[in-house]
Amino acid sequence: MHRFFVEPTLLAGTPDNIVLPDKLAHQVRDVLHLAIGEQLVLLDNSGDEVLATVAKSNRTGVEVQYVERRPGPDEPSVRIILCQGLLKSARFEWVLEKGTELGVAVFVPTLCHRSMAGLDKAGPAKIARWQHIIQEAAEQCDCSRLPELQPIRPLAQVLNDIPEGTFSLMLWEEEHALSLRDALNTYHATTTTSSTTIVLFIGPEGGLTAEEIALARQRGVQSVTLGQRTLRAETAALAAVANAMYALENMPGNTEC
Questions:
Q1: What was the pLDDT predicted at 250?
Q2: What's the confidence (pLDDT) of residue 190?
Q3: Do 61 and 93 lie in a common domain?
Q4: 243, CA 20 to 30 Å: which among 26, 98, 213, 228?
Q5: How does DSSP classify residue 30?
Q6: 19 plus 66 within the same structural domain
């Protein structure tokens, strides 16, 4: 069943009929060709979902009939905050899309020393495009809440904003002593909380500098390795997210999503 995020005001109360915004009406009518009587799900980012039936569809607009409001699918019990060093446009957008599919809760675009010049100057149009990519991915993979996209910030500021004691890891190709797997397994074995927040730091195309690693360690972030292969930044990000989700969702007290 097709799912669409809409403005919360559209679903306020229990309306009998809901007039879809023009852009969504076009998608329902002209792209998906949903017929009268077919059902769809509307989402207001509250965690609930509204089941509705197409009641009217013509060139003047699309109306759907309210059926019921019900709880949406559970979110992952592991809350992953992905601090991604700024990448070239297509690669960063790929991280947003696939990271959403894998269950990232918060994206933090991070300006690092080796980030390409100019990437930190994303205007309103670029931010809107990033939000749209996240929304489409969330609709596709049955999310009931949209991941948060935070403003672009320098790495030092992102590190300063980490709450004390938060489980935080930074992938670094020069780390040889501690693997991501061992760090996750140790955390899994020693924590007793039923829900988990993990902060993952991934560098840009040029990697992280030794100075940035030292600064992160001062803030309690552990540097880890993914193994002997040197991966592209976007590949490393998604590999780390997938591994963290797999390792920590099965912690005692965590429920399946």
A1: 62
A2: 84
A3: no
A4: 213
A5: I
A6: yes
The residue to which tokens 């446009």 are assigned:
89
Name residue 124's amino acid.
Answer: P
Report yes or no on 255 lying in a domain. Answer: no
**Number of C-beta neighbours around residue 115 at 10 A:** 22
Average pLDDT of the residues of the chain:
91
Amino acid at 229: R
Q: Which residue blocks in the chain are alpha helix, DSSP H? A: 22-26, 89-102, 124-140, 155-160, 180-190, 210-218, 233-248
* Cβ-contact 199, 81 below 8 angstroms: yes
Give me the residues of the chain with pLDDT under 50, please: 252-257
What residue type is assigned to position 7 of the chain?
E
Give the model confidence (pLDDT) of 174-217 as tens digits: 999 999 999 999 988 887 766 689 999 999 998 999 999 999 99
3-class state of residue 43 by DSSP: strand
Distances, alpha carbon 209 to alpha carbons 82, 114, 153, 162, in Å: 19, 8, 17, 20
* C-alpha distance from residue 8 to each of 4, 27, 29 (Å): 12, 19, 22
Q: What is the pLDDT of residue 255?
A: 41
Calpha distance 63→47 (Å, rounded): 23
The C-alpha R_g of the chain, in whole angstroms, comes to: 21
pLDDT given for residue 21 in this prediction? 95
Q: Which residues contact 39 (CB under 8 A, 6 or more apart)?
A: 1, 51, 52, 53, 54, 67
